[in-house]
């Protein structure tokens, strides 16, 4: 399997997970994904931002090498979000369960995308060179 194919699959899986999974997880496993006191407005805002990001990742899967900045934004923003949540979870003993809920979920997203995303573009093939000159 090529690097591009692995990246496309990862983008689709992560994208679908973000687009459809965040809000249900908040409601299905409240201890691991709902911060107390419950704030429905906050949860809806986070869920919609994650859903939009997921949709854009799915779209990026069609041509991932032209969407590397979006992919790396997803990696670094997921790590930053997980770090902030981990700090808050450690500081508040009532929220420690997040260290096995949403914190690792975001770290897994970042790790998977990091493993399959190239640090730089692969060298162009003959077909892509002729397309670039013609287009």
From TrEMBL:
Cited InterPro entries: DUF6632 (IPR046572)
TM region(s), chain numbering: 7-30, 42-58, 70-90, 96-116
Pfam families: DUF6632
Alphabetically ordered keywords of this record: Membrane, Transmembrane, Transmembrane helix
Protein name: Uncharacterized protein
């Amino acid at each position: 399997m090529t690097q591009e194919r692995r990246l496309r699959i990862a983008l689709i899986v992560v994208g679908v997970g973000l687009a459809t999974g965040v809000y249900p997880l908040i409601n299905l496993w409240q201890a691991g994904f709902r911060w107390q006191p419950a704030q429905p407005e906050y949860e809806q805002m986070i869920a919609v931002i994650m859903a939009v990001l997921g949709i854009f990742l799915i779209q990026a899967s069609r041509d991932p090498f032209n969407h590397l900045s979006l992919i790396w934004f997803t990696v670094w923003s997921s790590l930053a979000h997980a770090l902030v949540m981990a700090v808050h979870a450690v500081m508040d003993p009532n929220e420690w369960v997040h260290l096995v809920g949403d914190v690792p979920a975001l770290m897994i997203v970042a790790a998977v995308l990091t493993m399959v995303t190239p640090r730089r573009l692969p060298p162009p093939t003959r077909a892509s060179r002729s397309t670039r000159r013609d287009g």
